[in-house]
Amino acid sequence: MILKRLDTYIIKKFLGTFFYAIGLIIIIVIIFDISEKIDDFIEKNAPLYDIIFKYYLNFIPFFANLFSPLFTFIAVIYFTSHMAAKTEIVAILSSGISFRRLLRPYFISAIFLAIFSFFLSNFIIPIANESRLEFEMMYIKNSRQSKDMDIHMQIKPGIFVYAEHYNVDANMAYHFSIEKIKDNRDLVYKLTSDNAQYDSIRRLWKINNYFVRTINGMKETIKSGRQLDTVLNLKPSDFMENVHNMETMNWFRLNEFIAEEKMKGTDNLSFYEVEKQKRIAFPFATVVLTLIGVSLSSRKVRGGIGLHLGIGLTLSFAFILFMQITTTFATAGSLPAIVAVWIPNIIFGALGLYLLRIAPK
User: Exposed site from 31, 60, 146, 353, fewest CB < 10 Å?
Assistant: First the structure.
């Protein structure tokens, strides 16, 4: 495909407006963020080098990608409305170029931004987030916390562990138990104890005041003791969750993590499933919002750029609000993550096709 002068003209306007808008908003956000966190930086003696290079330098790609679909939409609305106001769209169509041909540079730009966004969210931002979140945990807040009460997980096929509570500081699980189930049906081994403490030097668990039942058909053996040292496929980190943990996982690690947690029988996998689907759906939203933007703003209207921007902002915020509502149904309800995340794209994609159909050609 050879790019014509019209293609390069629109692509330059598209990408130029997008990067200018996203750069401007990033500068504004950084200024407000500094004013909000300056007390934490001073109180905890955060080094200036770490503030600039570990926090804000890694903050930029995260924020830029977060609002990439929104600013793509705004950029398309702005420069296309400006072209329509100067009758450039009419002149292009009057020269014999079809409206479908006019869309080519828009979609070239949108697909480029979508691929760039996918690459950022799945491979670049997770690496950047490691330094950013480490800085936040050290100088701003502690994002690591123990899981809820009554922790139940599968550490190997057929082997389950349970703890009523886990103490992060002491590395100790209280009212700890291990169950072995044969063929997903028969209980063959059960250990209960007062607590289990992890020995980080020897890398094993010390189980205190334990009681063991071994079941073999109709026979049952009972054993008890004060302390038992054992190696388990279990780490203290399995009893803790980092509320930003998934932000540091690339695409492949996120899929591996979801598979591991499914094996353990973790209940709150919906957050990770939603994150996985968002990393595909958000880049695709760039293409959908581009279609809506160009179909909406290619018509010259009396209200001019202001009217188009007003409608565009309303639709973009409606898209974000709808996305938040559907993902809430996935994380707090029973709606599948793939359905919750992709519904806004499907509905607004249909709206874009309708606007395209009625756009002046």
Answer: 31
